[in-house]
Design a protein that fits this description.
Elements: H1 2-15, H2 25-54, H3 57-79, H4 86-116, H5 121-131
């Protein structure tokens, strides 16, 4: 809602009309940042749900909250110069990778239980709980 509100505000500020795509470079930056964030959220939601369901809910929820803050940083950075959005983008990629690896670990654990009867769920939860605070390191 914040992103869409910024696009509407910038559109009115530049053109006086609601949501016209032609405008200043400020409007183009806001519009592009909004589109980039909108295109990234389906991937984020898919890996977040998979990591939470297949591996561990607490580290997945922590990583999900971190991702929302990072996307906010990316959006605000994109409104300035494009180089200001790079740290938010790279940090977001790292969080998506963490959630993806959690999902893969959960799937591998399922198949280990199914085929070999070995359950490593406790070990996986311990490892992901220990690694998730490392996401705070820039």
């Amino acid at each position: 809602a914040f992103f869409a509100n910024k696009v509407e505000h910038e559109s009115r500020h530049c053109n006086g009309k609601v949501l016209q795509r032609q405008g200043s470079s400020a409007f183009d930056r806001v519009y592009t940042a909004n589109q980039n964030c909108g295109h990234a959220y389906p991937t984020f939601l898919a890996v977040l749900w998979c990591a939470g369901l297949l591996c561990s809910q607490a580290p997945a929820a922590f990583a999900g909250l971190m991702y929302l803050f990072v996307r906010q940083k990316y959006f605000v950075g994109y409104l300035g110069e494009r180089t200001q959005s790079t740290p938010g983008y790279l940090f977001g990629k790292r969080i998506i990778l963490f959630l993806f690896l959690m999902s893969v670990a959960g799937i591998l654990n399922y198949y280990l239980v199914f085929f070999f009867g070995s359950d490593f769920e406790i070990h996986i939860k311990t490892i992901t709980s220990a690694i998730s605070p490392l996401l705070l390191i820039p």
